[in-house]
Amino acid sequence: NAGVMQNPRHLVRRRGQEARLRCSPMKGHSHVYWYRQLPEEGLKFMVYLQKENIIDESGMPKERFSAEFPKEGPSILRIQQVVRGDSAAYFCASSLYRDSLQETQYFGPGTRLLVL
Amino acid sequence: GQQLNQSPQSMFIQEGEDVSMNCTSSSIFNTWLWYKQDPGEGPVLLIALYKAGELTSNGRLTAQFGITRKDSFLNISASIPSDVGIYFCAGQPQGGSEKLVFGKGTKLTVNP
């Protein structure tokens, strides 16, 4: 079984450009989470999505950041007009719901964003 | 917001030694998880704990979910060089959504 897949693994953008990060969850998983990790830090929650729904976006910056998980295709984390402070590793995780209970989150390899 | 205090920040040990690290919080967590992260990779789940007092082993790893639901520890016995990496505790806070709150990590170095 393929795990959580993220691409690109590395992304370089100049200030003001847009960054699009993609995440394909594990097969059968319908819940996706995005986290951000700064150097020497733990992961910080950003957003939790189910297919076509944003469930919890309490960790998302109010401006420039958006996320979607369409009915078909991967989840996308979009950062508009990137600034140097957006440089970080962005991780996606997915989980399964079984019998109304969420199961463990499994993480992808991450996208390392560098803003020049 | 909820925070996890993870200690120690870093450990330098000799191969064969046992290791212990822990996480504490001022608020209650419903689930405790321990992950390991290698450089350039995502966190890999080591152990998941779902019930207060639960003690779970995975090979040389043992973790416990504290009775108060505010702490957890991870022990690694007879360390080997491939145990090198950063270990994170993570928890799902009570009353929160399914998001995970992470500690800042324990960086483990094993000298052969």
Write up what this structure looks like:
The complex is a heterodimer of chains A (116) and B (112). Chain A has 116 residues and is mainly beta. Chain A is 0% helix and 52% strand. Chain A has strands spanning 5-7, 10-13, 19-24, 31-37, 43-50, 53-56, 65-68, 75-79, 88-95, 97-98, 101-102, 106-107, 111-115. Chain A is globular, with a radius of gyration of 14 Å. The model of chain A has no long low-confidence stretch (mean pLDDT 92). Chain B is mainly beta. Chain B has strands at residues 5-7, 10-14, 19-24, 29-37, 44-49, 55-58, 61-65, 71-76, 85-93, 101-102, 106-111. In chain B, the strands form 2 sheets. In chain B, strands 2, 4, 5, 9, 10 and 11 form a 6-stranded mixed β-sheet that branches. Chain B has a 5-stranded antiparallel β-sheet with strand order 1-3-8-7-6, with no helix packed on it. Chain B starts with a strand and ends with a strand. The model of chain B has no long low-confidence stretch (mean pLDDT 93). The interface between A and B is medium-sized, with 28 and 22 residues.
List keywords for this structure.
heterodimer; A: 116 residues; mainly beta; seven-stranded mixed beta sheet; 13 strands; 0% helix; B: 112 residues; six-stranded mixed beta sheet; five-stranded antiparallel beta sheet; globular
Helices and strands in order, then pairings?
The complex is a heterodimer of chains A (116) and B (112).
Chain A: E1 5-7, E2 10-13, E3 19-24, E4 31-37, E5 43-50, E6 53-56, E7 65-68, E8 75-79, E9 88-95, E10 97-98, E11 101-102, E12 106-107, E13 111-115
Parallel strand pairs in A: 2-13
Antiparallel strand pairs in A: 1-3, 3-8, 4-5, 4-9, 5-6, 7-8, 9-12, 9-13, 10-11
Chain B: E1 5-7, E2 10-14, E3 19-24, E4 29-37, E5 44-49, E6 55-58, E7 61-65, E8 71-76, E9 85-93, E10 101-102, E11 106-111
Parallel strand pairs in B: 2-11
Antiparallel strand pairs in B: 1-3, 3-8, 4-5, 4-9, 6-7, 7-8, 9-10, 9-11
